[in-house]
Design goal:
Radius of gyration: 21 Å
Number of domains: 2
Structural class: alpha+beta
CATH architecture of the largest domain: 2-Layer Sandwich
Largest sheet: 11 strands, antiparallel
Cofactor: Zn(2+)
Shape: globular
InterPro entries: GalP_UDPtransf1, GalP_UDPtransf1_His-AS, GalP_Utransf_C, GalP_Utransf_N, HIT-like_sf
Catalytic activity: alpha-D-galactose 1-phosphate + UDP-alpha-D-glucose = alpha-D-glucose 1-phosphate + UDP-alpha-D-galactose
Domain Galactose-1-phosphate uridyl transferase C-terminal: 254-392
CATH topology of the largest domain: HIT family, subunit A
Pfam family, one: GalP_UDP_tr_C
């Protein structure tokens, strides 16, 4: 108890008055991980998450850059054929593409590299300078049910502002790497950041869904080799989640529980612990596709326990390192953490990782051509059971 009180005091003292509420908004915060909030030169929020075994001092530098004003808020246009909203964020055209290490915008600032992060760090989260959603938010008194009904109405040439928030999550100050190259302690810090930011972003007015993800590899379209991910806070329920909600309505509220029970007793399990199971899904679309589910119903990271986060850090690292053992070179992937919407389906939709890779052989990729890209009708190239066996062998070569 004395240790908890000491570390709790350190957390509070290390957070600036600018946004102390945001830094303390998660319902479960590991007291070993200090959270420190500040602002960048143009007003964007920056939050440092310090490892439990950090060697960094509590002080953080001030961002003294002279920055241009932030770009105008993007806008959304509705496709009347599907009802889906497309964000038009032209400022993203100016993003940095594959910079050298000495000009890495996600590295700590130093002479000659006026990057986004003023100080050395363990894990850092900041608002994207050119976001797809935000920085504008809905009115504080906006009613979610009314907003969702308006978003789901279909019409011609409908436009709305792309409200919300986009954040960058830097896993490490190193120039190259990915989640799978982290230590267990650092992986644990990133998971704590996901949980804390999920809670904070879910509380913003107008946010309907929070999506943490990592894109890894040039084949996926990654423009920065720096180990990082992102978090999108959408002003609507995404199309994929809308379809999931429809499936829950069609099947019943036990969909996730029944699915997990079937997979845990089937031939496609890759890893299973006390709190989480990783498996290749029965109807996998991609040559490499892995899902991870918690054993109890948890709608999002914010509602996971410390014990669940501890186990996930080790299990997830073992999974990613096993995937990289499949071939002689690192495997590109999208690691997508699906969470329940903020205001709908929270008793039915469970937190779930869906990791996918287009790599179907050492030197071959699956491209989305006519059937998949145009019609959304998928054709699998690898039998899920065969893929599961190959992944189990690769994971078995990784030290636990």
């Amino acid at each position: 108890m004395q240790l908890f009180a000491k570390r709790k005091s350190r957390i509070v003292c290390g957070v600036s008055d600018l946004n102390a509420a945001a830094a303390a908004s998660a319902p479960v915060v590991d007291p070993r991980i200090a959270v420190r909030s500040s602002r960048l030169a143009d007003g964007r929020e920056l939050i440092y998450f310090d490892d439990a075994d950090t060697t960094l001092p509590p002080e953080r530098g001030i961002d003294e850059r002279a920055l241009d004003p932030r770009p105008a808020n993007a806008h959304m246009r509705q496709d009347p054929l599907t009802g889906e909203w497309i964000s038009i964020a032209a400022a993203r055209q100016n993003r940095v593409v594959l910079p050298p290490a000495d000009l890495d915008p996600l590295a700590p600032q130093r002479p000659g590299n006026p990057s986004e992060i003023p100080s050395n760090y363990d894990v850092a989260v900041f608002e994207n300078r050119s976001p797809s959603f935000g920085p504008e938010l809905a009115a504080a008194d906006s009613a979610p049910a009314t907003a969702l009904a308006e978003l789901r109405r279909v019409g011609l040439e409908r436009t709305l502002p792309s409200l919300g928030r986009c954040e960058v999550v830097c896993f490490s100050p190193e120039h190259e790497g990915s989640f799978g190259t982290l230590s267990v302690s650092r992986a644990r810090t990133v998971i704590e950041a996901w949980a804390q930011r999920t809670a904070a972003l879910s509380a913003l007015p107008g946010v309907e869904e929070v999506f943490p993800f990592e894109n890894r590899g040039r084949e996926i379209g990654v423009t920065l080799p720096h180990p990082h991910g992102q978090i999108y806070a959408y002003p609507y329920v995404t199309p994929r989640t809308e379809r999931l909600l429809a499936s829950v309505d069609a099947y019943g509220p036990t969909l996730f529980a029944d699915l997990l029970d079937r997979e845990r007793n089937g031939p496609r399990v890759l890893l299973s612990g006390e709190h989480w199971t990783a498996f290749v899904p029965f109807a996998a679309r991609w040559p490499i596709e892995v899902h991870v589910l918690p054993h109890r119903h948890v709608p999002d990271f914010a509602e996971t326990t410390l014990e669940e986060r501890e186990e996930l850090a080790s299990l997830y690292l073992q999974l990613l390192r096993g995937i990289d053992r499949l071939y002689d070179t690192p495997t590109p992937y999208i690691a997508a953490w699906h969470q329940a919407p903020v205001h709908e389906g929270r008793d039915d939709v469970r937190l779930m990782l869906q990791l996918t890779s287009p790599r179907r052989a050492a030197d071959k990729l699956k491209y989305l051509a006519g059937s998949e890209a145009a019609m959304g009708a998928w054709i699998g190239d690898v039998t899920p059971e065969v893929a599961a066996e190959a992944l189990r062998r690769a994971i078995g070569e990784v030290e636990a």
